[in-house]
Specification:
mainly alpha, globular
Length: 223
């Protein structure tokens, strides 16, 4: 097994986008109610990271199959398109990560009830649908909205709910703040890849809005 190739496929530099919302949700619960459950927080952190890693791996494999990571790609190399790993093995890695997230979720559902079950199921399905299925989210202008919902509001509010069994405006506001930042990160990536993405029929927000409007949207997300 080529460990360096798998590390490249996981995209470790991006994982703070799934770690930070869990930390913020737990911090808010402690600051407001002095409630925090260490084991549940570790399970939430692991589940959130596994969902992101699974999404990254699935994206790597499927984008290569769709021709989206060709030689004109500007960003970091992708392992499937580069021939470092096969699409089948990367997809199996993604499936293993989603399964690990589901296992973490069983304990979290016991703690947080049906809202956590609903959030977990939607998160995993959205991770698969991001680049998979007949209408991948990543091939539409809705990718940034997906990121705001799941790597911002969902992760912060889900963690806060696990600790307090309630929701408050501070958790929602913090979730939006982190989600909008994560959406801005995705928008930058899509802005960079706009030419290559358009070649394979993607219609990301950066492509549909055009260069000038995309810059203004990015500014709005950051503000």
């Amino acid at each position: 097994m080529n460990l360096s190739s798998w590390i490249m496929a996981v995209r470790p530099r991006t994982l703070t986008l799934s770690m930070t919302p869990v930390a913020v949700g737990a911090a808010l619960a402690w600051a407001g109610d002095r409630k925090i459950y260490g084991l549940a927080m570790l399970a939430a952190l692991g589940g959130s990271m596994f969902i992101q890693i699974g999404t990254n791996l699935h994206n790597d494999a499927v984008d290569s199959e769709r021709g989206g990571d060709g030689p004109d790609r500007v960003g970091p190399s992708r392992v499937t398109a580069s021939g470092l790993l096969t699409a089948a093995s990367v997809k199996r890695g993604a499936a293993a990560c989603f399964a690990a997230a589901a296992l973490s979720g069983f304990y979290l559902v016991f703690i947080g009830g049906w809202p956590i079950l609903l959030l977990g199921v939607l998160s995993i399905l959205s991770g698969l649908a991001y680049t998979g299925g007949p209408a991948p989210i990543a091939y539409t202008p809705l990718g940034e909205l997906f990121v705001v919902a799941f790597f911002g509001v969902g992760a912060v509010c889900g963690t806060y709910w696990l600790c307090t069994a309630s929701l408050g405006p501070a958790a929602i506001e913090a979730g939006l703040a982190l989600g909008l930042f994560a959406g801005a990160v995705l928008l930058v990536n899509n802005f960079r890849d706009a030419e290559a993405d358009a070649r394979v029929g993607r219609k990301t927000l950066a492509i549909m809005a055009g260069r000038r409007v995309t810059i203004w949207i990015y500014t709005g997300l950051m503000l």
